[in-house]
Amino acid sequence: MGKIEWAMWANEQALAAGLIYATGGIVGVAGQFRGWQFAAFGIAAGVFVCLLEYPRSKRGKGTSVERTGQYCFTVCVNAFGPLTRNYYVRAFLHAALCVPGGFMLATVLGCVCLGIASLIYLSAAIHGEHWEPILPRTEPPKRVGDSIKEPPQNPPPRPPPELRRKKADKLETAAYDNPMSVTVNE
Amino acid sequence: MSNWIINQGLSAFILVVWMGINIFLFVYFYLFYDLGPQFEYTRELLGSALPWARAPAAVLNFNCMLILLPVCRNLLSLLRGSFICCGRTMRKQLDKNLTFHKLVAYMIALMTAVHTIAHLLNAEWYTNSFQGRYGPLATKLSMLGDSRELNTTYLNPVRSNSTTPTILVFTTIAGLTGVVITLALILMITSSMEVIRRSYFEVFWYTHHLFIVFFAGLVFHGAGRIVRSQQVTDPPHNNSLCENQLENWGKTADCPVPQFAGGFPQTWMWVIGPMIIYLCERLLRFIRYMQPVSYRKIVIRPSKVLELQLVKPGFKMQVGQYVFLNCPAISQLEWHPFTMTSAPEEDFFSVHIRLVGDWTEKLIKMVENLPEGGQGPKMAVDGPFGTASEDVFDYEVSMLVGAGIGVTPFASILKSIWYKFKDSDPKLRTKKIYFYWLCRETYAFEWFADLLQVLEKDMEERGMRDFLTYKLYLTGWDQSHVNHAMVHFDKETDIITGLKQKTSYGRPNWDREFEQVQQENPSSVVGTFLCGPQALAKDLEKKCVKYSDVDPRKTKFYFNKENF
């Protein structure tokens, strides 16, 4: 299927699943359904999954497009190091989170969607992908050649005036006049 | 303002009509289920959750009917052809088909969400009703069994104490199909996100075929007739009287046992038409796929551009249209669009293919390995599609602006204008063309420079140097360009393109350009055509207004924004 990076699709699916999980949970709790405890768990798990999945990973090839305002999420997710970078961990985490959703009707859809996201993440992990944060680039190095066009700000280094003075006994052959008056033996 | 009305007015009108129909359906069916007497007992069990489920269902019926139509591109071509009389604005609407498809899809997603949530509530409340949590009337209604001996029909689909909402959903046709098609819808939507579509088109394309599952499930969704309405019995059951005399049901003349029956499934009536149309569309694409296409010439241009000149019997095109190409040797199921770069006056059609991704890369590699003069790989062609840019020929003076890849349709247009001019075609009113070519670098468009060179030579031979004035603007210049230009400034031809016309650097000064056109054509009507970014369109539109004169003897500029 071409050079697909499975993680990109898994990310979209997991984000959608998180939202659906949370919505189903809200309906279950607000309607005081039987088994509302599972719905409450669904809200918590759904919100957690949304926060985890919101920052998009940097793509292996090509330009990565950030989601609006994802920078602070990127920093948080990055702080967990290998736990969040590794997709095997994510696949397992999503699989574990989705199970309680299956016990109640309102969260069953969220459960299945999250399960599918978990499978796609597993595929991504098997293909060797991992999560990379999208961080702002450092300043590009100053281009060579600009300094050539700028005139020098300071005069070239010269020895101190005492040494620049011509020696008095060599006045006739000198190429220039002394800037300061010269007396012998000064 | 008037420009907006001309360009966007019809689209806005269609949107308003579509939204109006949606709102009407929602409100009508909400009230039907909320106020209808045949649902009074159902409302006893479910409150307003039933109308909240049925209203989006009606909107869903309407939108599922609409969603297949904008993607039947051959049908749209047919419509476009038969609307020749009805003005270009009408036909331009057909070009926005994908935007409409996405809009309808969003509405389907939204309504599915409302429908599903309402049914979650329904399932829960039906179960609660059966377990006696909602008072004696609800319990009595729920207890009505489905029994021929006792002559009762059930109202509550929950029939036993051990049924939970989950079991209810997964053991009814409506519930099971509902879950399956919602899942299909979610997978279709997540794989259609712009990120996935632009970079991994195959995932989007193959996953989107889940629509087959979606429509199959949708048609059977109502087969279980789970929405029950009260039937008229003989003698009639008086609801308002009998709900206070629960013990007398079936015993007094006023209160026979109420009878219920399921509603006839209606969705198939909405969607069967478009499903058949779409089937015909796919069949037509298959037939076109089988039609033979032969190669007239294959040219590998510098900077990884492949020019294919193809011949297909019965193929007719117009300027500025595009075709879809499919190469079974690369991928059985992928069709990719390419703007045509040949003029309708030629007896072949050509496309220029740049190396941008998987498919194009494989094609170019295959063609590079061909023997000299050999036929290329089997190619299938679907099309042509797109609204033709016939207006270009109507103006005495034309300003054509092509930015970046937007220059491709102008190859077709310029060639066609030149053919018409040579043959003195009466349809051609153009006497003078100003062509502005803006690009960051000419790297991938050297073939277009070649075309301009050929035109330039041809025009000089006929002594018509003034017919076409073109200016090339290199907006991505840097120091090396400047150095090169400084060294070669006294050469007769341009160092970048080899054309007599010199390349300019940076963006054009439109005020100066418009002034020049105005001075050289003091009393003409000038048509401005752009294929490029939106920001440039706004700019040019303003300039057209600024330099147009109310006096009919003076120059007038008309702006046409095209999306070729």
From TrEMBL, chain A:
Q: Where in the cell is it found?
A: Cell membrane
Where do the TM regions start and end? 12-30, 36-54, 92-122
Alphabetized, the UniProt keywords read: Cell membrane, Electron transport, Heme, Iron, Membrane, Metal-binding, NADP, Oxidoreductase, Transmembrane, Transmembrane helix, Transport
Residue segments, region Disordered: 136-186
Pfam families xref list: Cytochrom_B558a
One molecular function GO term is:
heme binding
Q: InterPro entries in the record, alphabetically?
A: Cyt_b558_asu
Per UniProt, the ranges with Basic and acidic residues bias are: 139-149
User: Can you list the GO cellular component terms from the UniProt entry?
Assistant: NADPH oxidase complex
Asked whether the UniProt record includes Transmembrane among its keywords, one would answer yes
Quaternary structure annotation from Swiss-Prot or TrEMBL: Component of the phagocyte NADPH oxidase core complex/cytochrome b558 complex, composed of CYBB (heavy chain (beta)) and CYBA (light chain (alpha)). Component of the phagocyte NADPH oxidase complex composed of an obligatory core heterodimer formed by the membrane proteins CYBA and CYBB and the cytosolic regulatory subunits NCF1/p47-phox, NCF2/p67-phox, NCF4/p40-phox and the small GTPase RAC1 or RAC2. Interacts with NCF1 (via SH3 domain). Interacts with SH3PXD2A. Interacts with DUOX1, DUOX2 and TPO. Interacts with NOX4; this interaction mediates superoxide generation.
Q: What does this protein do?
A: Subunit of NADPH oxidase complexes that is required for the NADPH oxidase activity that generates, in various cell types, superoxide from molecular oxygen utilizing NADPH as an electron donor. Subunit of the phagocyte NADPH oxidase complex that mediates the transfer of electrons from cytosolic NADPH to O2 to produce the superoxide anion (O2(-)). In the activated complex, electrons are first transferred from NADPH to flavin adenine dinucleotide (FAD) and subsequently transferred via two heme molecules to molecular oxygen, producing superoxide through an outer-sphere reaction.
**Family note:** Belongs to the p22phox family.
Query: What name is this protein filed under?
Result: Cytochrome b-245 light chain
The protein's organism comes out as: Cyprinus carpio (Common carp)
Q: Which gene encodes it?
A: LOC109092367
Automatic annotation (TrEMBL), chain B:
Q: Name one GO cellular component term.
A: NADPH oxidase complex
GO BP, one annotated term: defense response to bacterium
Main location as per UniProt:
membrane
Q: Which InterPro entries match?
A: Cyt_b245_heavy_chain, FAD-bd_8, FAD-bd_FR_type, Fe3_Rdtase_TM_dom, Fe_red_NAD-bd_6, FNR_nucleotide-bd, RBOH/FRE, Riboflavin_synthase-like_b-brl
Q: Which reaction does it catalyse?
A: NADPH + 2 O2 = 2 superoxide + NADP(+) + H(+)
Membrane topology reported for the UniProt record: Multi-pass membrane protein
- Subcellular location, in the record's words? Membrane
Question: TM segments?
Answer: 12-33, 53-79, 100-121, 167-191, 203-223
Provide the alphabetized UniProt keywords: FAD, Flavoprotein, Heme, Iron, Membrane, Metal-binding, NADP, Oxidoreductase, Transmembrane, Transmembrane helix
GO MF terms held by the record: metal ion binding; superoxide-generating NAD(P)H oxidase activity
State whether keyword Nucleotidyltransferase applies. no
The UniProt record lists the FAD-binding FR-type domain at 285-391
What PROSITE patterns does the annotation carry?
FAD_FR
What would be one Pfam family of this protein? NAD_binding_6
The name on file for this protein is NADPH oxidase 1
